[in-house]
Amino acid sequence: MTALSTEHATMPVLGRLAPYATREETIAHIAEAARQIRIQDLKLVHYAGAGHIGGDFSAIDVLATLYGAVLNIAPETVDDPERDRFILSKGHVAGALYTTLAAFGFLEVAELATFLKPLSRLNGHPNRNKVPGVEANTGPLGHGLPIAVGHALSAKLDVSRRRTYVLTGDGELQEGSNWEAMMAASQHELDSLTVIVDRNRLQQGATTRETNDLDPLDQKAAAFGFAVVEVNGHDHGELFDVLSSAPFRPGKPTFVIAHTHKGHPISFMSNNVAWHHKVPNDGQFAQALDELESAAAPTAHDRTVS
Amino acid sequence: MSTAITSISDQPRFDCRDAYVATLADLAQSDHRIVGVVNDSVGSSKLDAFKKAFPDRLINVGIAEQDMVGVAAGLANGGRIPFVSAASCFLTARALEQIKADVAYSNRNVKLCGMSPGMAYGELGPTHHSIEDIAWLRAIHNITIIVPADPIETAAAMRWAAATEGPAFIRVSRMGVPAIYEDDYKFVPGRAITVRDGDDVTIISNGTVLWRSLAAAEKLAEEGISARVISMPAVKPLDVDAVIAAARETKGIVTAEEATSVGGLGGAVAETVVQNHPTRVTILGVPEFAVTGSAGFLLDRYGMSPEGIADAARALAVR
Question: Does A146 contact B71 at a Cβ distance shorter than 8 Å?
């Protein structure tokens, strides 16, 4: 198999739409970004011979929506104290995060070709001291939510409008630290905090139900004091509407259960537990690429801000 | 006998938590970024007055240490300087992965303050003892480890930590210790202080055992043995030069600390000696899950009474 090189890191930089874009234009832009990010991420995993493609593809629509239209952050103000914070608690989908950061101009696309290579700053888990746009060095599960609570507390102390978003896996919620943090978020009435759960119902080697069932997750989160919203985690319209509208109840943090499929939308990967960190072979790669490239081309994004 | 009247053993004793809370309030007064973070440990950290003075700036996450350290990392992300105050046993054991990943590896400006460390909880037993904290944290890169010996050094370490970007761990003693340093003392990481000079043998110590080491040196002096006493407040970064000089200039080194005899100050000194100037080293520490007793009783039992430290030093000096 060919090794990952710069010829495999050629995705377009999509940037953000101008603020006056319509909802339809915005959603089309997010959809195209997500499609391009998947194509690029597929190449990274295939040619690097490693990665977590199942979880990457379940999370990419959330990532594309946040970076494409929700978060108040930009490559040129990546250290602005008043920026919104996004914390990727499921740090093992670093490949999806790097690709998303490249799509929106935080990283050079060509640098993606160093993914997992010796001395690359694009490690298997993100490092905030090396990669612009990364807020925390995550990887061990159950760390992102407490960090997000701490940041939301700092915003409250500062009487700032900056918001905090954290994306966790669902299996990850088996870690008790998340529930410690949820109690604190509710106690401190952190309504600038939005927790997004990538609810793909699969963990490393089995379903969450077979392992340590989380349901009824909505009732659990509500009992912990969150305003709970459920969305189709692959529907960019639903994601955009919900993530840009939080909070839904004054004084309550938001808990978005994003129903997803691992490996979405690839026919042979979707909702298949085998694809947690499996690497597509040449034939599988060609088929997945074909499925992504033949997906309906969304609206041209002629209103992209340079 | 006649020298006893001036012995350090007879000086009044202080609880370093009092210096801790006074300094934290003082720092918070002059820097709005300073906040306290606790795990229900307001009382045990003596922070009631701080809570009254700065009600919004004492964040109690409840009995939840993993969350406490993660929250501190998030507060630092938002530009605050959190001083996490919690019993050292729970802070370091229960949140060790958060200390490693969220604070040290993420290089967050978080100050971890281990209250009532070592065997301060005495009769409550090994579940509440924190003799492992130094060894655990010493294995983690990018965190300064400070074990102050008196109230002045506790305050100085806090002022240094508040003014210096990056992760730090400060052990805040509960068991009474006499005043050792003058008011103008400044903490410098990686700098040891020769608190008593001598050329026969060296005792390297810190925290609650430093005054006991000085008392040991007093006893040895009565026998004509000249013991150098080095205070090593920073276990990391270690003052390597001071250790090598002691190895070179005296007949051996005794280390003495209120911690497990594995991997703490003694381990750090031994690693330095072996790689630079091999000499005899005796490591005094806690060699087991401690038996029932007060902290003072236990230090005596494990060879860290002034007499016990003197015995260990004498054995090296006269060989």
Answer: yes
How far is Cα A140 from Cα A136, in angstroms, rounded to an integer? 11
Asked if residue B23 and residue B153 are part of one domain, the reply reads: yes
Confidence of residue B3 (pLDDT cuts 50, 70, 90): very low
CATH number at residue B254: 3.40.50.920
**CATH number for the domain including B35?**
3.40.50.970
Chain B contact present for A150, CB below 8 A: yes
**Structural domain boundaries enclosing B135:** 13-178
Over the stretch A3-50, which tens digit does the pLDDT of each residue have? 999 999 999 999 899 889 999 999 999 999 999 999 999 999 999 999
**Burial class of residue A196 (count of CB atoms within 10 Å of its CB; 0-12, 13-18, 19+):** buried
pLDDT score for A296: 62
Q: Is B65 a catalytic residue?
A: yes
**Closest chain B residue to the Cα of A143, Cα to Cα:** B70
Q: CB B74 to CB A140 under 8 A? A: no
What global pTM score does this model have?
A: 0.94
Task: Name the residue with tokens 């801000």.
Answer: A305
Q: Which value does ipTM take for this structure?
A: 0.92
Tell me how far apart the alpha carbons of residues B128 and B107 are, in angstroms, rounded to a whole number: 28
Residues B158 and B203 in one domain: no
**Fold of the domain spanning A21-293:** Rossmann fold (3.40.50)
**What total number of domains does chain B contain?**
2
Question: For B138-195, what is each residue's pLDDT tens digit?
Answer: 999 999 999 999 999 999 999 999 999 999 999 999 999 999 999 999 999 999 999 9
To the nearest whole number, what is the mean pLDDT of chain A?
A: 94
Residue A137 and residue B106: Cβ atoms within 8 Å?
yes
